[in-house]
What does this fold into?
Amino acid sequence: MNKNLAAIYQSVVEGESSQTAKKVQEALDEGINAEVILNEGMVSAMSEVGRLFEQGEYFVPEMLISARAMQEGLSVLKPALAKAEVRSTGKVVIGTVNGDLHDIGKNLVGMMLEGAAFEVIDLGTDVPPERFVEAIKTNGAQIVAISALLTTTMNNMKGVIQAICAAGLRKNVKIIVGGAPLSADFAQSIGADGYSADASKAVALAKSLIA
Ligand code: B1M
It folds into this structure.
């Protein structure tokens, strides 16, 4: 692996925020593609953090400091990932479902959507169904993107879709879902319009749904 990519990987695993930011900048300066930095340097490092957590070598505080390092690196990477086109492709309301605090994947999806010129309204994490409904009404969004990282919270996505239906807004929006424990079958079972396994596929999906 390239020296800078290896250093990024290591600094995310070790939760070294400033080192991550520095090495991401160096990798960009070296001309390494932003998506390569993201996937080989950072996303793979978070998988390793997950593995260490599963094996009892890392605990929540270690996961948290690795997540901070990842966020720090992402803020340096963002301009390169989101080379926005001028015209708006559409409006997307995005959030992590209620009960769930994971936001790195959701933030990445938001960034990539912005890069494809979508206007993104980010509701953050632990978002209750009624806030999704309110945000659709206020912003006239065409797409709702919901993220969940826990097998326990993925089931709350159905509640969001039910609330959107109950508010009479279902025909106005396309609903896409994603997050590590999900699958296309799960998305279909809760009445979503689509599922994507990663951030770039989410962009393609969003574009195809409003085409
Ligand atoms: Co937590 N956590 N965590 N965690 N965490 C996982 C998810 C876990 C798999 C770790 C493990 O056991 N291996 C496990 C879940 C097990 C399960 O449910 N089966 C777990 C657990 C158990 C927990 C706690 C319960 C731990 C505890 O307290 N005992 C707790 C729950 C808190 C809560 O949410 N209520 C908890 C807490 C945390 C931290 C707060 C410490 C931190 C999150 C910080 C943050 O997000 N700001 C954290 C972290 C960092 C992780 C891991 C290590 C990394 C997640 C991550 O950021 N990945 C994770 C292990 C792992 O994923 N391997 C783990 C990188 C990110 C780029 O990938 O989020 O998958 P991901 O996003 C991808 C795709 O999934 C997809 O695109 C993204 C990019 O390509 N995607 C979408 C995501 N959302 C999408 C939406 C879309 C489309 C695509 O459209 C709408």
Summary: Residues 43, 46-47, 49-50, 53-54, 60, 63-64, 67, 99-106, 108-109, 145-147, 149-151, 176-181, 196, 198-199, 202 surround CO-5-methoxybenzimidazolylcobamide (CB under 6 Å). DSSP finds nine helices and five strands in the chain.
